[in-house]
Write a structure and sequence with these properties.
The complex is a heterodimer. Chain A is built from 14 helices and four strands. By secondary structure, chain A is mainly alpha-helical. A two-stranded antiparallel sheet of chain A has the order 1-4. A two-stranded antiparallel sheet of chain A has the order 2-3. Chain B has two domains: 131 residues, Response regulator (Rossmann fold, 3-Layer(aba) Sandwich), CATH 3.40.50.2300; 187 residues, Response regulator (Rossmann fold). Chain B is 39% helix and 19% strand. In chain B, strands 2-1-3-4-5-11 form a six-stranded parallel beta sheet, with helices on both faces. Chain B has a five-stranded parallel beta sheet with strand order 9-8-6-7-17, sandwiched between helices. In chain B, strands 10-12 form a two-stranded antiparallel ribbon. The radius of gyration of chain B is 23 Å and the shape is globular. Classes of the chains: A mainly alpha, B alpha/beta. The interface between A and B is large, with 62 and 52 residues.
C-alpha cells in the first residue's frame, strides 16, 4: 500500500493492447464531448461533423490530403533521425531552408523548362535542408554536442533569415512596400494530378522508399543499430560518425523537400511561416507511428483528418478556433497517453484493475 | 499497422454510432432555398478591440439587414498565406457559401486563386488591388480623410508638440495614414513633429504596447496607431497621455486617453453590394468609399477634446465631405528633403494617392 508503482511492461498481450487503445479513443471522445457540451455545443453533432468534414465530399477529402502531404514527408525525415535516436527537433528550420533554396531556383531560373526547373528546385531544397541538418550532425558526431538544443536553435536562425530576406533583399518590388517575396511563375508550380498537386504521389513514393531504406538496406540497418546501441555498432566495426552524418543529411533533405512542396504547390512563394508547424507536428506523428514508415502514412492521414475536421467544424458549426484546437489537444492527449500505458505498468495500491481506470 | 487501423475504425464507428442517435449528421449545409450563404475571413479575433471588431460589426449589420435571407459564416485568425485562406474559404464554399469576403491585405493571392477555381462564387477583398472581370472585386476607403481630421485633434491637444504613431508595415496604405494624420496636425500646429515605430505585423497587442511605450518614452504625448488592437490607447492612458484610436470608437476601453478615432463603416459598402450580388447585377470593381459615402467616419470627439478643436474639425469635415478639401496639397517634402508634391499641385485621384512611397518632413520613422 505504498501509493503508485510504475514499472516497464515485460510483455503485453495483444488483447490488452487493443483494449487500452480503444479505451483511450473512447475516453478522449467522452472528455472532448463533455467540454463541448459545457461550452454549449452539441457533441453528438460535432464529432460526426468533424469526420464528415474531413472525408464527406471530394473537396473535403482533397483538403485532408493536402494537409497530410507535408506531414507525411516531414515525418519520414524525422523518422530517419529518430531511428538513430538522434533527436532532430529542427524540422521547421530544415523545411524553411529547403523552401528558401527552392525559391531561389524558382525566382532566378524560371526560364527553364518546367520539368527541369521543378527537379532543380527539389534537388536544391533537399541539399539545403540536408546541409541545415548536417551542421548539428557534424558537431554531434565529432564533439558530442547535444543535438536537441542545436537543431531547435537552428529553426530560429532559418526563420529569421527568411524574414530578413522577405523584408529586405527579396522583397517584391510590386508589393508596394508590403514585405512579401515575389510570386513564382507558373513554371515553378507543381502540377496537379486528380485535383491535388502531385506532392501526394511524392509522399507515397517516399513512404515506400524510406521503408525499404530503413528495413532492407545495409545503411538503414546500420542506422537502426546505432540507435539501439552505439557500443554494438562500434564492436561491429561501423563508422558511427559517418552514419550519423549520412542519416541526418537524409533526414534534413526530406524535411527540405517538404519546404519545396509547400512553397511550390501551395504558397507559390517563400514566407517565414511557410513551415506551418509541420516540423514539430511530425515529431508526434513519427513517434505515434513507432518510427515505421508505412505506419507514418496512416498516422499522418489520421492526423490530417483531425486538422481538416477541426477546420471544418469551425466553419460549419461556427465553433471558435480555440475550441477546435482544444478538441484536437484532448484527443492527442489521450492517444499519446495510452502509449505510456502500453509501455509501462501502473499499479495503484497493487491493483491493476484500478490502474486501468486512471488511464 | 493493424493497431492503427483498429483505432481508425473504432474512431469512425463510434462517431457514426453517435450520429445515429442524434439523427442529425452535422454538415450544416444551409439547405433552404433563397438563402445566400456568405463567408467572412478575419486575420485576428473579432474581439481585438479594433480592426477585426470593425470588420465584424460590418458582418453584424449585414445580418441585421438581411435577416433570414442570409446565412453568415466567419473564420477568425486566418493567416496571410494561401493555405490558410484557401482552407477556410473552401470549407465555407463547401457549406454553401456563394460570397466570400476576405478582410486582410495578405489574403489577396489566396483570393485570386480561389476566384479562378470557383467561378460561380463571388469574392470580395478588402484593401487589396487585384480583381478580375467576373467574380473578384476589391474595396477600400479614403481613410486619409478621417486620419487628417483626427490629426487636427492631435495637433491641437499635444503639449510637447510630439506625436507618436504605432504603425504596421512600411506599406503604402500605412504611409498614407501616417502622412495624412501628420498633415492634419501640422495644419493647426506648425511646430509639431511625429515619431513612427513600425511593428512589422498587422496586429499584435504585445508589440503594439511595446511600441507605444517607447514612443511615450520619447516624449510623444498623443499617440495613434495603424495596427489592429487598442494597446496604444491603453498605454497612453496609463502614462497620463492622450490617444487617437483607429477602426472603431474605443472611448469605453481607454476613457482617460481617448480623443476620437477614424473609423470604418463596412456595412455602408457591404449591404448594397450584397444586394447587387444576390440580384445578379454585380460587376467587379475597385470600390473606394469616402466620408461623403458614409463608408469612412470619425468617432464622436470626447470631452477631452477642446471646443476650439471641435470647431476646427467640424469646419474641415464639412469641406472634405463637400469634396472641396484635398488632403495632400503641395508644396510637400519627404523626410529626405525631396519634393514629393510640387507647389500648386495636389494629389486628388486614387492612383496619385496610392503611389505614396514616402513619409513627410517632420516625421521620424523607425523600422
Amino acid at each position: 500500500m505504498n501509493g503508485i508503482h510504475i514499472s516497464k511492461r515485460e510483455d503485453l498481450p495483444k488483447k490488452r493492447e487493443t483494449v487500452i487503445r480503444i479505451l483511450a479513443v473512447i475516453l478522449s471522445i467522452v472528455c472532448a464531448g463533455l467540454v463541448i457540451w459545457i461550452l454549449g455545443y452539441n457533441p453528438i453533432r460535432v464529432f460526426p461533423s468533424m469526420i464528415s468534414g474531413a472525408l464527406g465530399t471530394e473537396i473535403r477529402l482533397q483538403q485532408t490530403i493536402l494537409k497530410a502531404i507535408p506531414l507525411i514527408v516531414t515525418s519520414l525525415g524525422i523518422l530517419v533521425a529518430f531511428k538513430m535516436k538522434f533527436w532532430n527537433i529542427g524540422g521547421e528550420g530544415q523545411i524553411i531552408m529547403g523552401a528558401l533554396a527552392a525559391s531561389y531556383v524558382a525566382l532566378n531560373m524560371d526560364g527553364l523548362p518546367k520539368g527541369i526547373l521543378l527537379s532543380l528546385m527539389a534537388l536544391a531544397a533537399m541539399i539545403a535542408g540536408g546541409l541545415w541538418a548536417f551542421i548539428p550532425a557534424f558537431f554531434k558526431a565529432k564533439m558530442g554536442v547535444n543535438e536537441t538544443i542545436f537543431t531547435l536553435m537552428l529553426n530560429y536562425i532559418a526563420i529569421k533569415y527568411v524574414t530578413y530576406l522577405q523584408y529586405g533583399p527579396w522583397k517584391s518590388p510590386e508589393s508596394q512596400g508590403f514585405p512579401k517575396v515575389a510570386t513564382f511563375s507558373d513554371n515553378a508550380v507543381l502540377p496537379k494530378l486528380f485535383g491535388i498537386h502531385i506532392g501526394w504521389l511524392i509522399a507515397l513514393l517516399l513512404v515506400v522508399i524510406v521503408y525499404i531504406f530503413i528495413n532492407h538496406t545495409k545503411k538503414g540497418f546500420e542506422i537502426s543499430v546505432v540507435g539501439e546501441s552505439r557500443e554494438t555498432a562500434r564492436y561491429a566495426g561501423m563508422n558511427i560518425a559517418t552514419i550519423i552524418l549520412i542519416a541526418m543529411f537524409i533526414s534534413g533533405g526530406l524535411c527540405g523537400l517538404t519546404g519545396m512542396i509547400q512553397a511550390s504547390a501551395v504558397e507559390k512563394t517563400l514566407s517565414a511561416n511557410l513551415s506551418g508547424g509541420y516540423g514539430f507536428t511530425a515529431i508526434i506523428t513519427a513517434w505515434l507511428a513507432r518510427l515505421n514508415a508505412i505506419a507514418v502514412l496512416f498516422v499522418c492521414i489520421a492526423f490530417a483528418i483531425l486538422l481538416q475536421g477541426g477546420a471544418y467544424i469551425q466553419i460549419s458549426m461556427q465553433i471558435p478556433a480555440a475550441v477546435a484546437d482544444m478538441m484536437q489537444g484532448i484527443i492527442l492527449f489521450f492517444v499519446l497517453g495510452s502509449e505510456f500505458f502500453l509501455q509501462y505498468k501502473v499499479n495503484l495500491a497493487g491493483s491493476f484493475r484500478k490502474a486501468k481506470e486512471v488511464a | 499497422m493493424k493497431k492503427l487501423l483498429v483505432i481508425l475504425l473504432v474512431l469512425t464507428l463510434s462517431m457514426t454510432a453517435m450520429a445515429g442517435c442524434g439523427g442529425d449528421t452535422g454538415g450544416g449545409d444551409g439547405g433552404a432555398e433563397d438563402v445566400t450563404t456568405i463567408g467572412f475571413l478575419y486575420i485576428g479575433p473579432i474581439t481585438d478591440g479594433g480592426y477585426n471588431q470593425a470588420q465584424h460589426e460590418g458582418y453584424t449589420a449585414v445580418k441585421d439587414y438581411f435577416g433570414d435571407s442570409v446565412n453568415l459564416l466567419y473564420a477568425e485568425n486566418v493567416a496571410e498565406d494561401i493555405q490558410a485562406v484557401k482552407t477556410n474559404a473552401i470549407n465555407m464554399i463547401d457549406n454553401g457559401a456563394s460570397i466570400i469576403i476576405a478582410t486582410s491585405f495578405g489574403h489577396m493571392d489566396g483570393m485570386e486563386e480561389l476566384a479562378n477555381e470557383y467561378t460561380d462564387v463571388t469574392f470580395l477583398h478588402f484593401s487589396g488591388y487585384k480583381k478580375n472581370d467576373t467574380n473578384f472585386g476589391n474595396y477600400f476607403g479614403a481613410m486619409e480623410e478621417a486620419r487628417y481630421l483626427s490629426g487636427i485633434v492631435a495637433g491641437m491637444t499635444t503639449k510637447t508638440n510630439k506625436l507618436g504613431y504605432v504603425a504596421a508595415y512600411p506599406y503604402t496604405e500605412v504611409r498614407i495614414g501616417i502622412n495624412s494624420f501628420y498633415l492634419g496636425a501640422k495644419s493647426v500646429n506648425p511646430d509639431v513633429t511625429m515619431n513612427v515605430v513600425y511593428i512589422n505585423s498587422w496586429g499584435d497587442a504585445a508589440l503594439e504596447q511595446a511600441a507605444a511605450e517607447s514612443l511615450l518614452a520619447q516624449g510623444c504625448d498623443v499617440l495613434t496607431q495603424h495596427a489592429d488592437t487598442s494597446a496604444a490607447q491603453t498605454a497612453a492612458e496609463k502614462a497620463g497621455c492622450y490617444a487617437v484610436g483607429y477602426n472603431i470608437d474605443n472611448s469605453a476601453v481607454a476613457p482617460g486617453s481617448f480623443l476620437t478615432a477614424p473609423v470604418w463603416h463596412h456595412e455602408a459598402y457591404l449591404i448594397p453590394v450584397i444586394e447587387k450580388i444576390i440580384a445578379g447585377e454585380y460587376v467587379p470593381e475597385s470600390y473606394y468609399g469616402t466620408m461623403a459615402d458614409g463608408y469612412i467616419g470619425l468617432a464622436p470627439l470626447t470631452s477631452l477634446v477642446s471646443d476650439e478643436a471641435k470647431t476646427e474639425v467640424e469646419k474641415v469635415q464639412d469641406q472634405i465631405v463637400a469634396g472641396e478639401y484635398p488632403i495632400f496639397v503641395g508644396p510637400l517634402k519627404d523626410n529626405e528633403g525631396n519634393v514629393v508634391v510640387e507647389e500648386g499641385k495636389a494629389l486628388t485621384t486614387h492612383d496619385e494617392i496610392w503611389a505614396i512611397d514616402w513619409v513627410l518632413e517632420g516625421i521620424t520613422a523607425i523600422q
